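Hi Q.,

Before the meeting this afternoon, I wanted you to have the adenosine-5'-diphosphate-glucose prediction in hand. No need to reply - just skim if you have a minute. The sequence and ligand are here:
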Amino acid sequence: MRRLVVVSNRVGPVRAAAKAAGGLAVALVDALRERGGLWFGWSGKVGERFSSRIEKVEEGPLTLLTMDLSQEDFDAYYNGFANQTLWPLFHYRVDLSQFDRAHFEGYNRVNARFAQALLPRLEPDDLIWVHDYHFIPFASQLRSMGCEQRMGYFLHIPFPAPEILVTLPVHDSLVRALFSYDLVGFQTEPDRIAFINYCVQETGGRIIDDYHVEAFGRTIQVRAFPIGIDTENFAELAASAGAKDRCVRMSDVLHGQIQIIGVDRLDYTKGLPERFRAFERLLENYPENRGGVTLMQVAPTSRTDVEDYVDIRNELEGISGNVNGRFGEFDWTPIRYIGRSFGRKALAGLYRASKVGLVTPLRDGMNLVAKEYVAAQDPENPGALVLSRFAGAARQLDSAVIVNPFDTEGVAEALQRSLRMPRPERLDRWHSMMGCLRRENVDKWRNDFLAALRGRE
Ligand code: ADQ
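Predicted structure with the ligand bound:
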């Protein structure tokens, strides 16, 4: 069995902490343990100057390797090109995407430095699996240093339509870099098609068959692998004593009020202001919900060095303040906005205590919160999921109540319908979604990707 090398911006956690962090870390750790392997990436630390020092932690058959970033590299690579250029652009926010040539150079420099550091630790038979938008040029850097190992890449966020991608001045360099991999994986079929369309329209590339594309003189495999969650584990967690305790405490606080829940990293792609406005519209158009329905939004801050993330927080505090001022009663707060994160167990309990899960990103690669909400429900009396059509998850969870988050009225209607959905309909929808989550869980995602990467051995 070949050794596996995983490369991702952040490494770990492993052991008990991996369980706490959820599906992806567990799935990767399991694969690394099974075959023995390396997990390599950024330590999360920023030093004053660049240092090629690698920190090594051994965990049985699994080795974690991390490097620090210099302040200059952090600004250009992480805050700059990754989070201020690629992240907004790939989520269709051309208006927020800023291009700075120095940031792009920094992005390539960090990829080169990381590739250089990993190089002496690689073995000829390794399978290399690179993750996400931080490391698009990683394989091309390794290839330029003579690496011939099989390398796969998985993009966790959407791949934009060619018309969007070409607004980036260095679009061709990025896509060319992807052709250094043997396999490029996307979350959904539309992402895969967007990539192929780009290759055909912009580079004169050729579709060879269902899974292969040729461009820049190379043929690569291009496939969709929708990421899943650890469904059974999450369902068990939601039924555990710890989660029940959270659920009971939540019900005590609610005093018979019904709760709608949203859980997101605070990010402008998650459609939070639109969501708050749709909830406000629910209270305006269907006054019977006043005093009886609460929206709890859990949204810990992220990427606070980037200004757009500070703006969104201010906007949300403004809207929730207005709605609460306008409709609130001494014994009812319409929107409860919590800016911190919760452990897995507590989160599972909160999902289960909520009659409606409201997941309305404006654009999202997959969205695991939608899947977790479904897995956490009481099988006898499940809640309803309201899901944006622009989340990758909507392609699998088509038994959710699917909405367009830009349609305030439509989301308010969907909420009203979900709050009043009869139990038999909730059960039907839930069984259909849960069946899919059981079949297409995180283990299947990992195994399918690795099987495609291995090819015929
Ligand atoms: P994210 O944009 O971070 O991930 P998501 O898929 O929803 O979005 O995953 C978030 C994870 O963090 C979930 O497991 C969730 O439980 C957890 N989380 C979020 N808010 C939390 C909170 N307040 N407290 C505790 N935990 C919280 C990116 C892409 C997604 C893609 C994933 C995986 O943007 O589209 O689904 O990677 O590929």
